[in-house]
Design a protein that fits this description.
Helix content: 25-40%
Largest sheet: 12 strands, mixed
Length: about 700
């Protein structure tokens, strides 16, 4: 049966009759037709003629266009209400949502889980998902207006009763209610995405809406193969981040429901079991219009809100791009790390940068998957302007590495400090149970390792950031057994779909790694899903994979060091001093070490180094001899002469020796090597700088 407008005629007409409180028989009587004719329209077996549609419009009190287009309801607004789920008839009680306890109530966890869900629901693959986090503190009349729109007075008794129990959730509720009464302020956090699917689907049946609003442990992802999440737990972090267990939702749909796309609103409240006015309630409650379907009579369902209601509930969206806005009422960081608005703002920015820097990186051949912003308001006024999360500002070396890969500009071996080396790392995917042959080890997938020198300001380095799917950071690995004096580096490991490739091995690796992740998606290790779905040996393959990552890193950093501003970075070796050789000298505890070296290669071919020494506490002065050696590709380490030695801080130079007074804990000297004594061009060898005892001690 063809339709003239948005929603099919039968479902639309049935809903209008229920909203108007009119039966099929009553409509048939007014139209002078049989009830069977009206029933045929509603079930979709027939559709009325044009003149009958005009008559139906008159009965419903709307213009004929409303009947033809079917994108609005004849009775446009029913009174909003809170519907609380009645207690279980078997006497069972839940004192909180167990799914919320799967994660810490932490803003960084919220940002990770909510943004992951947005990435998984990207609508147009040619465009990035845009996520916006808006903190908004309300007080005074602004707070009062919001609470009225929320019908807070109708919730008050439910909160009071829920907060009176001795359980953990009840105690937290009590503290939140007391703070609201005393301080008269409330922090809202709106988490919204654009170019995402939105909460599509029916109110109660299978679909995104029901999975998020009505159900627990339902991971209803459009692109399951690439999805970061798989447990259906991540959405619980939204409610866990609310001190009141309350989240409001406004969704713009990527595909119409009931003939509409914009401003699908609903609220959900998660409270412990409670008894109010003699009635027992199970836990959750929903805010919306009363449902008119006979099987859901009185249940609060989502409604198509007007713009004024959206503003009153602080759920405004920018434009008509599909996606969803979640408003967390009473947002907080339970870890205690972020209490002020500024601290919460900064933590959100850091968390987004740490978890999703790779998804925000784009290149000439492939754009970013994600962009993110954080804004902070107070009573409608901007306190901290929108801050775009820039991956190159937060993780410059890692971002450079990924961009080089996206642009096809990686190299097999580093020769300059701005290069990115690439190596393949084999991951053997164990066969699924019942699908592998006897002694079949599995299918090999070449993951991609990208390595580049660390930046001067990097506080954390010598790590491999691992990811799959939509390039969310899964885990970090610290490679073992690195070569002595290896340059500081940053590395990225791309596996599965994160490699940007397609193929059977890619899909197998993606599924295998996803099965090895716990609900937090923060490591690749033993899980029940991994051991139940895959043949024996799956855990061994993961251990081998980690070992192969370490091996690939050693292979890249163990080669010739890259040229920095003028030459290779100085090898930072810590050399021991021996006090033997001076009769009767008291040997001091501990040994001086090279704390840091700043180097450059001069046009003459000489190395210019500034060396910082850390010295142990000692009663005697130190007499040290700085030594420079070339670490060439073969043979021993030939010593090179100094063309110049100069004292910089807390020391002096005398006849080629460094003199440091007793009690000095840190000294700095500068040296320039003599190119005439270099066995090879300085660009083709590492420079080893050490100090030895001038009294004949060993290096």
């Amino acid at each position: 049966m063809t339709t003239d407008g948005g929603e099919a005629f039968g479902p639309w007409l049935g809903r209008q009759l229920r909203r108007a409180g009119m039966t099929q028989a009553q409509l048939a009587e007014v139209l002078g037709l049989t009830r069977a004719a009206v029933s045929a329209w509603i079930t979709g077996r027939a559709e009325p003629r044009e003149e009958t549609k005009r008559a139906i419009a008159e009965v419903l009190g709307v213009d004929a266009a409303s009947v033809y287009n079917r994108t609005t309801d004849a009775v446009s607004r029913l009174p909003l209400q809170w519907h609380h789920r009645p207690a279980h008839t078997d006497g069972g009680r839940e004192y909180g949502n167990a799914a919320a306890f799967a994660f810490d109530s932490d803003l960084s966890v919220l940002a990770r889980e909510a943004t992951q869900n947005s990435l998984d629901e990207r609508h147009d693959p040619a465009l990035p998902v845009s996520v916006r986090y808006t903190l908004h503190e309300l007080s005074g009349e602004h707070l009062d207006a919001f609470l009225r729109a929320l019908q807070w007075d109708r919730l008050r008794e439910h909160y009071e009763q829920a907060a009176s129990a001795p359980q953990k959730v009840s105690r937290s509720l009590r503290a939140a209610l007391d703070d609201l009464a005393e301080n008269r302020s409330l922090v809202l956090l709106r988490v919204e995405d654009y170019n995402a699917a939105g909460l599509t689907g029916p109110e109660y049946g299978d679909g995104r809406f029901a999975a998020v609003v009505r159900r627990q442990l339902d991971s209803h992802k459009q692109s399951v193969r690439r999805a970061g999440g798989s447990y259906g737990l991540g959405k619980a972090t939204l409610w866990a981040a609310s001190r009141y267990g309350l989240v409001l939702v406004n969704s713009t749909l990527s595909e119409p429901h009931e003939g509409r796309r914009e401003r699908r609103l609903v609220g959900r409240l998660d409270l412990p079991w409670r008894r109010v006015d003699g009635e027992a309630y199970a836990g959750p409650a929903w805010f919306g219009e009363p449902d008119t379907e006979p099987e859901h009579k009185g249940v609060s369902r989502s409604w198509w809100a007007d713009e004024e209601t959206v503003r009153d509930l602080h759920l405004e969206r920018l434009g008509d791009a599909p996606g969803t806005s979640f408003l967390i009422v009473g947002a907080h960081d339970a870890s205690g790390d972020a209490e002020t608005l500024q601290e919460m703002h900064d933590k959100l920015v850091r968390s987004l940068a740490d978890g999703f820097w790779a998804a925000m990186v784009g290149g000439r051949r492939a754009g970013p998957l994600l962009e993110a912003r954080v804004t902070t308001l107070r009573n409608g006024h901007v306190v901290i302007p929108a801050e775009r999360v820039d991956p190159h500002a937060h993780h410059p070396a890692l971002s450079r590495a990924l961009r080089a890969y996206l642009d096809g500009e990686t190299v097999p071996e580093l020769t300059t400090s701005d290069q990115v080396a690439r190596a393949d790392v084999p991951l053997v995917v164990t066969p699924l149970k019942g699908r592998g042959r006897s002694r079949d080890k599995g299918r090999e997938h070449p993951a991609v390792l990208l390595l580049t020198p660390a930046g001067d300001k990097d506080e954390r380095f010598n790590r491999v950031v691992c990811m799959r799917g939509n390039r969310m950071t899964i885990t970090e690995q610290r490679p073992r057994d690195l070569p002595l004096g290896a340059m500081p580096f940053q590395a990225v490991l791309l596996a599965g779909f994160a490699t940007g490739r397609e193929g059977d091995d890619v899909e197998l690796a993606e599924a295998f790694l996803r099965a090895s992740e716990p609900p937090e998606h923060d490591r690749w290790d033993r899980t029940e899903e991994l051991t139940s779905l895959y043949e024996r040996g799956a855990l061994s393959r993961l251990k081998e994979f980690r070992a192969e990552i370490d091996k690939a890193v050693r292979g890249l950093v163990g080669r010739r060091e890259p040229v920095t501003t003028g030459g290779p970075a100085v090898l930072r070796e810590l050399l021991r001093l021996d006090g033997a050789g001076t009769s009767g000298a008291r040997r001091s505890p501990g040994f001086p070490t090279v704390r840091g070296i700043v180097s450059r290669l001069e046009e003459t071919g000489a190395w210019h180094v500034t060396v910082t020494l850390r010295l142990p506490e000692a009663e005697d002065p130190w007499t040290l001899t700085p030594v420079a050696k070339f670490d060439v590709r073969s043979g021993g380490r030939p010593v090179v002469d100094w063309a110049m030695l100069a004292a910089s801080e807390s020391c002096r130079v005398d006849n080629g020796n460094l003199l440091v007074a007793a009690g000095v804990r840190e000294a700095v000297f500068t040296g320039v090597t003599d190119p005439a004594t270099h066995p090879v061009n300085a660009r083709y060898a590492r420079l080893v700088v050490g100090v030895q005892s001038a009294r004949g001690g060993a290096e």
